[in-house]
Amino acid sequence: MPPTEAGESLLPDLIALFTTLAAASPPGAVPVTPSVEPWQVRYTGRFRRHGRPAPGVWTAETIRCPGCGRTAGPWAVTCDWRLITLGCPCGVVTREHALAFSEVCLLLPDT
């Protein structure tokens, strides 16, 4: 199901927020994000990567393990607040999923 107009109107602000949070601080500047310990959580379910190749056109792709092709996990999701890695039960750990921070964190329980 495509996003609603109300949800779509939030995207520019969310993109700006996550871009700011992910950006490195210039030398001598105070970081915009506090120092936080990395965390890990298990997630059983599918991750979908969403794209918008043209106005009003949305795409969604299910993330697959590059080793075994599994899509529903259970994933071991590890985040150090700069990089998210997905670990599959087959033993493959990948950073090459191209998921946005929001596409992962909005699905997970409170960590």
Strand and helix map with partners:
Layout: H1 5-22, E1 39-43, E2 48-54, E3 57-62, E4 75-79, E5 84-87, E6 93-94, H2 101-105
What are the main properties of this structure?
111 residues; alpha+beta; four-stranded antiparallel beta sheet; two-stranded antiparallel ribbon; flat
How would you spell out the order of helices and strands? Answer: HEEEEEEH
Largest sheet: 4 strands, antiparallel
Give the total of beta strands. 6
- Write down the overall mean pLDDT: 83
- Could you name the ranges where pLDDT drops below 50 across 5 or more consecutive residues? none
Q: Helix fraction?
A: 10-25%
- Residue share in β-strands: 25-35%
Q: Strand pairing plus helix content: what structural class?
A: alpha+beta
Q: For the record, give the distance between the C-alpha atoms at the N and C termini, rounded to a whole number.
A: 27 Å
Number of continuous helical runs:
2
Q: Tell me the Rg in angstroms.
A: 16 Å
Q: Strand order, biggest sheet?
A: 1-4-5-6
Global geometry: flat
Tell me what you see in this structure.
Helices cover 21% and strands 26% of the residues. The longest helix is centred in the N-terminal third of the chain and has 18 residues, at 5-22. A hairpin with a 5-residue loop joins β5 and β6 (93-94). It has helices at residues 5-22, 101-105; strands at 39-43, 48-54, 57-62, 75-79, 84-87, 93-94. It is flat and about 40 Å long. The strands form two sheets. It has a four-stranded antiparallel β-sheet with strand order 1-4-5-6, with no helix packed on it. A two-stranded antiparallel ribbon has the order 2-3. The protein has two helices and six strands, in the order αββββββα. The chain is an alpha+beta fold and 111 residues long. The protein starts with a helix and ends in a 6-residue tail after the last helix.
